[in-house]
Design a protein that fits this description.
Elements (H helix, E strand, L loop, with lengths): L32 H6 L8 E2 L8 E2 L1 E4 L8 H9 L4 E4 L5 H7 L9 E6 L4 H15 L4 E6 L5 H8 L4 H11 L2 E8 L2 H8 L6 E5 L7 H4 L1 H7 L3 E4 L23 H9 L4 E6 L4 H8 L10 H17 L5
Helix pairs in contact: 2-3, 4-6
Length: about 325
């Protein structure tokens, strides 16, 4: 990406076993919505290809947040278990310290991070500081952090905007993919059509399914990998509601992540455990990688509707 009109090169390739929908390709390589719907409940492969020469990633990724208590050895443990998509929140934490100490093993993980700059001037300060803190000479994925308005997007992609700077870093090889994080699904779908984005990071869970209608079809058509976050709806999905039927058993984190991963457009679903206990619980999914039964899925969807109704305002 050398300039504002350059289209995406090296579109992300996908493992044919990753999603059942890709087996439904027609003669021109598109996938019908009927095929997508048919394969929504297939968990598919454990790994995905994101493109631009990156190593295949485990579709269950690890993210940290400002209040995470994960230590470097926790992150290393997750990597030993097979997790290799790491999403850094930009706070100095166990994940950043683990990456800084990786040495040659750094090449085996895909490191993603949130990027706050909107102007090229700010990006020129932020990007080198991230490389320094992480002890690396490149970052695999940067997502413009919480772009929530058209004005923000225009600032980013305008001449002198942050996209221009990152496109040059991508050309130099110090960045592999340029992405965007947003809660605004319809806007993100429009921006995905600009050919300036290599990846989308979007909220998706059993209580918030709007991306299925408003964003996933566009991401699929453009072959842009989708990384989802907030799979537990800030743990609200793990708790009951006043309208739960008698005998209802609340879902586990594995149920919630399994739901997200079952959608054929989702490349990676992020977990964000607060500590080692939660991390170990989440990693059990790797040993029980299976499709949800139809009855399980229906119960979770019904619970998601109740959570959306009762769990309070959620941006």
């Amino acid at each position: 990406m050398h300039n504002a009109t350059l289209t995406r090169s090296n579109p992300p390739s996908r493992n044919e076993s990753e999603v059942g929908a890709l087996k439904c390709k027609d003669a021109v390589g598109t996938v019908t919505q009927r095929c997508l719907k048919h394969s929504e409940n297939s968990l598919g492969a454990k790994s995905a290809q994101l493109g631009n020469g990156l190593p295949a990633v485990c579709r269950l990724g690890l993210a940290t947040r400002g209040n995470s208590h994960l230590q470097p050895d926790d992150v290393e443990y997750a990597i030993e278990r097979g997790i290799n998509y790491l999403n850094w929140c930009r706070h100095s934490d166990g994940l950043s310290r683990a990456v800084a100490g990786m040495g040659g093993a750094r090449r085996r993980v895909v490191l993603a991070a949130q990027f706050e700059a909107r102007s090229a001037q700010d990006a020129e300060r932020e990007f080198p500081s991230m490389l320094e803190e992480l002890g690396t000479d490149y970052i695999d994925v940067l997502t413009f952090y919480y772009v929530e308005s058209e004005n923000e997007w225009r600032e980013i992609v305008a001449p002198g905007g942050a996209w221009e700077y990152l496109a040059e870093e991508k050309r130099r090889g110090r960045l592999k993919l340029i992405g965007l994080t947003s809660h605004q699904r319809r806007l993100a779908a429009q921006w995905a059509k600009s050919d300036k984005l290599d990846l989308l990071m979007i909220r998706y869970n059993a209580a918030h399914r709007g991306a299925e209608r408003e964003l996933f079809p566009v991401a699929h058509d453009k072959q842009i990998p989708v990384v989802t976050f907030t799979g537990l709806r800030w743990k609200a999905l793990l708790h009951g509601t006043p309208e739960d039927p008698p005998g209802f058993v609340t879902p586990s984190p594995l149920d919630c992540y399994r739901f997200c991963l079952a959608h054929p457009v989702v490349s990676v679903t992020l977990m964000a455990p607060g500590n080692r206990v939660e991390l170990e619980e989440n990693l059990r999914l790797l040993d029980d990688w299976r499709t949800m039964e139809d009855a399980e899925r229906e119960r979770l969807l019904a619970h998601g509707e109740r959570v959306r109704k009762h769990a309070g305002v959620f941006w």
